[in-house]
Amino acid sequence: EFIRSVDAEFHERLVLNHHHYLGLKWGVKRFHYPERDRKLWKESGWTGIKQELIYSTSIHTMEEYNALPDHFSYAFLSPVFDSISKPGYKAERFNFSEKKESPVKVISLGGIRAGNVSEAIQMGFDGVALLGTIWNSENPVRSFMEVKSEVRKNIFTL
Q1: Considering just the CA atoms, what is the radius of gyration of the chain in Å?
Q2: What whole-number distance in Å separates Cα of residue 74 and Cα of residue 55?
Q3: Mean pLDDT across the stretch 5-27?
């Protein structure tokens, strides 16, 4: 029902976290694999990979990142900062000197807000992802726009 409620011209921008078979029927081009699903897919020999699709996954260590096959376009590495939406989910420090050369982009997740975007980019992340900054905000649009502004400042100054 959700996919049906989105104009068809935007279906290829949607990302499905589960029920990937539905996405293929509706023109969705982006599929996320949480850690558990990624491991199951690996056990199946990575069956069904389609070059025209965009795959992402969630990881929590640089070792997991280094083990990712190239069919993933990006991976969310977390928690980078103390979580905004998950109390008690504390920041980890990731050693980017251990990061292997890979086309898979590494996206920072966990505690991202306008005030720490620069730090995340300087750590070596290719981008940032937001959850609590938006969903726990009294003004989600303003929070998003503040982070977007910081991303633009930092990307163009590198």
Answers
A1: 16
A2: 7
A3: 91
